[in-house]
Amino acid sequence: MDEDYPRTLLELERRFCTEEACVEYLAALRWPDGWVCPRCAGADGWSIRRTRWLCGHCRYEMSITAGTIFQDSHVPLAIWFRAMWQITSQKNGMSALGLQPVLGLGSYKTAWAMLHKLRRAMVRPGRDRLDGVVEVDEAYWGGEESGAIGRGAEEKALIIVAAEEDGKGIGRIRLRMIPDASSVSLQGFVREAIVPGSTVRTDGWKAYLGLEGYVHDRQVQSQQEEGEHLLPRAHRVIALLKRWLLGTHQGAIGHQHLDTYLDEFTFRFNRRKSKSRGKLFYRLAQQAVQVRPVPFAALVKPQPVVSGGVK
Ligand SMILES: [Zn+2]
Description:
By secondary structure, the chain is an alpha/beta fold. It has helices at residues 9-15, 19-30, 77-89, 96-103, 108-120, 183-193, 232-247, 255-270, 277-288, 296-300; strands spanning 45-47, 52-55, 61-63, 133-141, 157-166, 169-178, 199-202, 215-218. It has a 5-stranded mixed β-sheet, sandwiched between helices. The chain has a 3-stranded antiparallel β-sheet with strand order 1-2-3, with helices on one face. α3 (77-89) packs across α9 (277-288) and α4 crosses α5. The chain is elongated and about 70 Å long. Zinc ion binds at residues 37, 39-40, 42, 55, 57-58, 60.
């Protein structure tokens, strides 16, 4: 399928004003080579009501949204499509408080759950790892930034960042929360985020020592100019991330949800040069039909961070 997406809000509203139109669109994204019946492998099927699809050969009925983030949602797909448009068309995204009135949602909880599900869809399943020269560094989030003065380091979340070198600029990035700055955590992230054989540039922290399978470019603090950073790209990403967390979200993010915000930031950052906002909508919709559904209870209490795990 050609990349088919609305270019403007008006186009979105005209085209996706019915559930049928939304279902057709999601079906085309989910089965780019055409729908195939899971029971008889027949290829003739059509939409019957809401999200239901009927096989014209064996009469098997299925939901187009089963197994996607839209599964079991009581919110009409037309509203979901507007939510996807809102969060991809705004440069910095939106908080649940901002989204609720725009979509006319009855409850804050609904807006919050929709946003969290969409953030899950911002990580493409099986996405590529970074390569080339990649800066890796850690930073703390929390404490004074989130307005809670006088808390100890145990109240802070540790974030690790990988940023590709692209000439003088930054290529793609990866971000994640890690439980500590041990070599298991740091090197586990490197293996998960960066293609073996790439050059990994870090500071002199000992936990990066013995990094196998990579060219390790260790920058040891010595005589650098004032205002100059050993790992300028990683440093810049962290500064932009903190500004975004404090700006769009007023810093009001529990550590248990931080990873999903890191996913949203990464999605936006890696597509920051995309000229078309409609294309971001397209990517998000495409990924939304590829990720597994998340029950509300799991959104509220996500899995604990496991070092070296694959996200
Ligand atoms: Zn069939």
